[in-house]
User: Fold Phosphate ABC transporter substrate-binding protein from Sphingomonas sanxanigenens DSM 19645 = NX02.
Amino acid sequence: MLREGDLIGQWQSPSLLISQTCGYLATHELRSHVTPVAVPHCAAPGCDGPNYASAILVPADHPGLDLADFRGSRAAYSRAYSHAGYNAFRSIVAPLADGQAFFASVLASDSHVASIAAIASGRADIATVDCVVHAFVARWQPAMLTGTRILGYTPTAPAPPYVAPINADAVTIRRLQTALTAAMADDTLAECRDALFLAGFSAPIAGQYDVILDRAATAIASGYPVLR
Assistant:
């Protein structure tokens, strides 16, 4: 069932069966509430098997050729608990910032789509956007990308996991994984999988999402705890 409203509360609910959340939330705020049960493999630019990246989006007419050229520009991010929209962004800026403010201003847009709109409308000069979200927009709302271009991609990280409550038993997790495997093999769902850029799933590996923790810790240790 598609639900709206307080997503954090829904992910923390003991009645949750299965959902998908950001890898940053799964390793931080929700780490004592959910457990990964499957890692999606997406067929979108910037994805590689169970891993995905953020598209570094900039104005089409900006002359910058790499990230260093955007020092002193205006940044936008989706939410501070987003890996693709914030943590990945912070991790690539930190080595250039030397513990100082790198941008002239930073805008909290509230979503990846809103970050795209901020670049397209001229309210921001650079943002990192989940590459799968960017692919959705390119397919279904391509006009939204007018006036933008991809500067490059951030290093990859494990894709946002499908999660169950932290206390889900092994039988429940196996049943969920079996259901997902069946959905990937069901010919009648091929159109749905294509619409979602879904190419497959894999079971999570212990420590698989530690790279997200490591990138956050490295940025903080370098004196760049917040995007600025």
